[in-house]
């Protein structure tokens, strides 16, 4: 019988080779394995039975099994993953072969291969292929590690040193040059047969690694920028600039690795010295500061800082260091390492080497001198301690100190005593902060030293902070001087704050922020890396001090910096990874019922696999099968599992999921069509997906969730864009854009909506579809007016009306006339606006049961809005009794419809009417609930008009401070949405409130801006209000003759326009101003 790897392969269970190797299972223990042992290793139930039967059949022959090979045997299927590829080339091997006998050359190549194999596999890599004098190695396959790029670079540096020491059989030593690159590949396909069988990798990365090694000088390691980004400050580099690499489209930046850096902290090496401001940890920092205060009073304290990877343990300790930087104290930092878990006292050795400044080229004497200088800072007799510490650091004493004749145990005890004595000596001089990081990777001897330190700490002025992951079991909990501090995940509000700090205050689109918040699950590292990844992705562009999307938001890619650690979690459960992938294709949450239908595997195997995923805390379970519901613990873990699937496999899974949902989960298909749409889209069922997304978008819009609705409708448009063009398809696209315009308008995204409607207009014109064209033109009139294009608004409205008059469709005509009424109102043409509004109501009365097909909601909209436009026009004309009746009617209809938009607009119209009439308390009663509903139901479009009217009422009632806050919000919201319609009136009101607040200069600025904007947008009524404000301001500011004349002219300008438009309330206000001037004898 061959190796254990071959034995497992003969059973079809090669996926367990790595697990057996990591747990030291060899021929001496194979027969002793029990079912529980295999279960603990993560072996599935069916596979356990198969193994146990095979072991029983071995009998005594089991002793003939050879030790398992160092390199794991890859899985039998291919997948997508991020891979770091190393290409190592033996320099001048051709010339060497001409000078040596073939047998000697064979020995050299064999030694070279063995050296490469040992170093690569020890570092966790996989030798993919020997290519004559070249070696191809993968890091991240068949098993990923969170530090694969670092492992590859360290292995490369070790290869350069180690291969150089091999005997070349000539006067010159062997030299290699190494290229390393990182990227996404497809890996795992079996290529070739027999002795030529190998695991193929498809992608740019292997080619890049091979090309990079040609750029390397003999005896050096060259890496790509992608690898350098992952290794950060762990190494020192030489920037080799941009290089043109054959087979790679663009020039690539190349880096030579000079060696490991001397950065003290791994955290600082990977994150740099400029850290993202800490968020959501105020209570934790305060706890640490309180403990530090006790330390300064002579009470030693221990804080055990626990948290999952990326939660911010190191960031919290960095924040504490910042707080204490100006306080007198000493600091010791110990860093445990995954690579040195078997190296006794490693963190203490590394700390002493850093503090002493030991260099590789130091002589033994220089090292001892530096060592004694460091010990003298804490110990009165450093010469006594130096021999022990020198031995700890493997420094030759060369007869400088007496020989230590100690047994190994006694030597260890004295070493421990010396370590503690050094710490005690420092603490006696000034308060001491000790950071012992990543205790879960500590070697046993270091934990023993830590244990002794904790025993003595109560009487020392020392704050010891020990950080570790949750799987580390601390033996010190329960002592009075020890506190356990577990870091929790960030609240969504804190995640949003962190995102804002990373973007330096530039707001992201809400859907982007929401996606980041959802996908990062409160892990600060995930928030930081995903936000940075989005900023670098090209999805966003800056506009007016914020970021905007140019199209629908695609799925967010996993940041390169997180990919390896996420895949490592999945690879630790290789035997059940296929179930994790199926679950990931279903979604973040999945039911037992659905995954069992989709997986098509024996119930026993599925149950066992799900149990393993739960035990490993990759998923949470609620309930028991068959009613169980499962949730991936991290959205990014789900993304990693999903991204590892090849596209064909994804399509197959999504098609199966879509079929199951449609046939057996009708509630999901009916109530959440967007879920079915996603699976149809991924399965290639594009047209079906588009129809489902439209249905989902409209359902969502009915709940006033317009941001989500717009995203779903944009997805429908994206789907239709890839389908063959036809009249039916183009008609569907127009209808979706019609649906989308309602959500965009509600969100205040006016510029985007103009482009949306103009696109729909061009399509309708191309089809010759007058029904759709008239609707689109009506809505385009509304949008153009909102953007300040009054002329364009009237033209579009009149064209829409002309189209409806050709058909017998009174409701369509009502909609067009109501939109035209709105455009006329904006121009100040109140009489003609009222004619259109009354015509709209009359048309609706003619056919109360007739609707606009799928747009019957707009009939209800017209019934309310036509009345409100009448109310607003009548109020400007001073016909308050008529306006009040229509206002009551509109309010009652809106309440019957019970939809936010109608209630908001009715509240605005009625409130504005009462404001003009001077009924301030009644105006407030109408405007306050309307503004509250604007915010709760996400209707930012209405905020400027309602907030400004409410602010005017507040100011007149003496609530000036509240009014100023509202007006500032109104102006800010209008700017964010590019709203111009009515904005000149908002500015006039703002100026009026500033006048009441005594801020005359600001008020004048707003008045001037209001006049300019009203003239530019053709809003004559609003221009008149602004001129009247100017008259009031100028007459108040100065009583000198020139200013009086100016005030008189302003009032006359306002009065002329008001008389022309029939604005009687404003006429009265202008005449009152002129009367004051005359009464005061100033005119």
From TrEMBL:
<dbReference type="InterPro" id="IPR013761">
    <property type="entry name" value="SAM/pointed_sf"/>
</dbReference>
<dbReference type="GO" id="GO:0009190">
    <property type="term" value="P:cyclic nucleotide biosynthetic process"/>
</dbReference>
<dbReference type="Pfam" id="PF13191">
    <property type="entry name" value="AAA_16"/>
</dbReference>
<dbReference type="InterPro" id="IPR011990">
    <property type="entry name" value="TPR-like_helical_dom_sf"/>
</dbReference>
<dbReference type="InterPro" id="IPR001054">
    <property type="entry name" value="A/G_cyclase"/>
</dbReference>
<dbReference type="InterPro" id="IPR041664">
    <property type="entry name" value="AAA_16"/>
</dbReference>
<dbReference type="GO" id="GO:0035556">
    <property type="term" value="P:intracellular signal transduction"/>
</dbReference>
<dbReference type="Pfam" id="PF13374">
    <property type="entry name" value="TPR_10"/>
</dbReference>
<feature type="domain" description="Guanylate cyclase">
    <location>
        <begin position="84"/>
        <end position="213"/>
    </location>
</feature>
<keyword id="KW-0067">ATP-binding</keyword>
<dbReference type="InterPro" id="IPR019734">
    <property type="entry name" value="TPR_rpt"/>
</dbReference>
<dbReference type="InterPro" id="IPR001660">
    <property type="entry name" value="SAM"/>
</dbReference>
<feature type="domain" description="SAM">
    <location>
        <begin position="1"/>
        <end position="61"/>
    </location>
</feature>
<dbReference type="Pfam" id="PF00536">
    <property type="entry name" value="SAM_1"/>
</dbReference>
<dbReference type="GO" id="GO:0005737">
    <property type="term" value="C:cytoplasm"/>
</dbReference>
<protein>
    <submittedName>
        <fullName>AAA family ATPase</fullName>
    </submittedName>
</protein>
<dbReference type="InterPro" id="IPR027417">
    <property type="entry name" value="P-loop_NTPase"/>
</dbReference>
<dbReference type="GO" id="GO:0005524">
    <property type="term" value="F:ATP binding"/>
</dbReference>
<dbReference type="Pfam" id="PF00211">
    <property type="entry name" value="Guanylate_cyc"/>
</dbReference>
<dbReference type="InterPro" id="IPR029787">
    <property type="entry name" value="Nucleotide_cyclase"/>
</dbReference>
<dbReference type="GO" id="GO:0004016">
    <property type="term" value="F:adenylate cyclase activity"/>
</dbReference>
<keyword id="KW-0547">Nucleotide-binding</keyword>
